[in-house]
Design a protein that fits this description.
Helix content of chain B: under 10%
Number of strands of chain B: 11
Strand content of chain A: over 45%
Number of strands of chain A: 11
Oligomer: heterodimer
Helix content of chain A: under 10%
Order of helices and strands of chain B: EEEEEEEEEEE
Shape of chain A: globular
Largest sheet of chain A: 6 strands, mixed
Largest interface: A-B, 25 and 30 residues
Order of helices and strands of chain A: EEEEEEEEEEE
Number of helices of chain B: 0
C-alpha cells in the first residue's frame, strides 16, 4: 500500500516563528488532507489539498503531486498551534480509507 | 451543522469484556469510517461503511466488527477485550466515498478506551 512519511518528527519553536512541515508519499493520490490533533484527541481538518496551494489565515499548504510531496506552512506561530500535525492520503481505487503518516509533534513555547 | 458525534467519550473495561462504540455522522454524510490510534502503531484504519455496506476492512482480528444503520449512524464492537485494545477510537464521516477525490473527511472527538 501507499507509504506516507512526515518530517520532522518533532519541532520546537518560539512564539512568532515560522515553520514548514513536510509530507512525502509513495504513490499518486486523489485525496490528501492535513489535520491538527488537539489535546483532547480530535483531528481537526486544516486542508484538503491533493494538488495546488491553499491558504487559511496563518496556515498555507502546497502539494506537488508530480513529485509526491506536500508542505504545510505555519507563520507567526502561537502556543495554540501546539499539537500533532498529520498528513493523510488515499491513492484511490477501492481503498475507501486514508493512510496516515506518523505525524509531526509541534511545540510552540511562549 | 453538528459535527461527527461519538459516544461514549471515555470508558474503562476489563479484559475479556466487550465494548460497543457509537458514531453519528454529519447530517447528509453517507460514509462512516473508523480508525484506531495508539502510541505505538499510530492511526490505523479499521473499516469503512457506505449505505450500510462494509466496503473495506483493515488488518484487525475478527474481534473487531462494525455496522451501519439506514440513518448512516454506525457502531463498532470489540469482543473479548485485550490490554492492547486500549486506544483512541476515531470515527470519521464524508459525503461521498471515504478517501475519494473531492471528499473531505471529518473526524469526531473520539472514544478513549482503557482495558484493565
Amino acid at each position: 500500500g501507499i507509504q506516507v512519511e512526515q518530517s520532522p518528527p518533532d519541532l520546537i519553536l518560539q512564539e512568532g516563528a515560522n515553520s514548514t512541515l513536510r509530507c512525502n508519499f509513495s504513490d499518486s493520490v486523489n485525496n490528501l488532507q492535513w489535520f491538527h490533533q488537539n489535546p483532547w484527541g480530535q483531528l481537526i481538518n486544516l486542508f484538503y489539498i491533493p494538488s495546488g496551494t491553499k491558504q487559511n489565515g496563518r496556515l498555507s499548504a502546497t502539494t506537488v503531486a508530480t513529485e509526491r510531496y506536500s508542505l504545510l506552512y505555519i507563520s507567526s506561530s502561537q502556543t495554540t498551534d501546539s499539537g500533532v500535525y498529520f498528513c493523510a492520503v488515499d491513492s484511490g481505487g477501492s481503498n475507501y480509507k486514508l493512510t496516515f503518516g506518523k505525524g509531526t509533534l509541534l511545540t510552540v513555547n511562549p | 451543522k453538528a459535527g461527527v458525534t461519538q459516544t461514549p467519550r471515555y470508558l474503562i473495561k476489563t479484559r475479556g469484556q466487550q465494548v460497543t462504540l457509537s458514531c453519528s455522522p454529519i447530517s447528509g454524510h453517507r460514509s462512516v469510517s473508523w480508525y484506531q490510534q495508539t502510541p505505538g502503531q499510530g492511526l490505523q484504519f479499521l473499516f469503512e461503511y457506505f449505505s450500510e455496506t462494509q466496503r473495506n476492512k483493515g488488518n484487525f482480528p475478527g474481534r473487531f466488527s462494525g455496522r451501519q444503520f439506514s440513518n448512516s449512524r454506525s457502531e463498532m464492537n470489540v469482543s473479548t477485550l485485550e490490554l492492547g485494545d486500549s486506544a483512541l477510537y476515531l470515527c470519521a464521516s464524508s459525503f461521498g466515498s471515504a478517501g475519494g477525490s473531492g471528499n473531505t473527511i471529518y473526524f469526531g472527538e473520539g472514544s478513549w478506551l482503557t482495558v484493565v
